[in-house]
Amino acid sequence: MRQITLILVLVLLALPVRLAAQEHVVLDEELRDVLVKASEERRSNIRSVRSLFESDMARAALEVADIELEEVQDAVAALGDEELSRLAARAAQVQTEIVAGALTNQQITYILIALGAAVIVIVLS
Hints:
86% helix; mainly alpha
């Protein structure tokens, strides 16, 4: 009788754990989809930032500040997802303003130097 009671108590204690675990199960497909989406977003953000720095205007601005393009490009890849996302949004905004002619060459130069330096500083910190 004692053994049956002990087994019953153990089964009852284990049951809620298994039920709770089932509520948090993530399907492999869902997890894969989330990871693929995050990876694609990261690649897109890296492309966006790198394309800004690869422009002739950006190269010239970085040269004035004595910042190596390769150092900036390597630092972009080393950024965390959150920093990279913010920088990509800013890079897209700058590119839009450049195309629209909303910025002077001097403003563009300062912005590009600041962005390049920020990337390096973020990675080094």
